[in-house]
Design brief:
There is one protein chain. This protein is mainly alpha-helical and 116 residues long. 66% of the residues lie in helices and 0% in strands. Helix 1 packs parallel to helix 4. The radius of gyration is 22 Å and the shape is elongated.
Length: 116
């Protein structure tokens, strides 16, 4: 029973997280400056992947109540969901948010003497 709770919560998290990352392309939350925003194309792709994986896992989990063969495959689907979530987390932390500075550096006002 505990396995099923964790299983369905994981796939619901994937659906909700995918909806959030895909929706942020059109309607950003404004919690981060534009310089560190994620690229719209990559966010949309990740959103589609997360939503698709979430619905697939949830549907197969529900189908497992009717078919014992599908029920036996639930641990494999759980591992798939965890792998997709881990890859998404890796992308968000290390790849997805790279600062793009949009201005030019200011000219220094140094004339050979220091200011105090």
């Amino acid at each position: 029973m505990l396995f099923l709770i964790v299983y369905f919560i994981l796939f619901l998290v994937l659906i909700f997280q995918g909806t959030q990352v895909a929706g942020e392309v059109e309607h950003p939350l404004g919690t981060l400056p534009e310089e560190v925003g994620q690229s719209p194309a990559a966010s949309a792709r990740w959103g589609i992947l997360l939503i698709g994986t979430g619905f697939l896992g949830a549907a197969l989990g529900l189908l497992g109540f009717r078919s014992s063969a599908v029920a036996a495959a639930r641990p494999a689907f759980l591992v798939l969901g965890l792998a997709v979530l881990a890859l998404y987390g890796f992308w968000v932390i290390f790849i997805g948010r790279k600062p793009e500075f949009m201005g030019k550096p200011a000219v220094t006002d140094e004339h050979g003497h220091g200011h105090h």
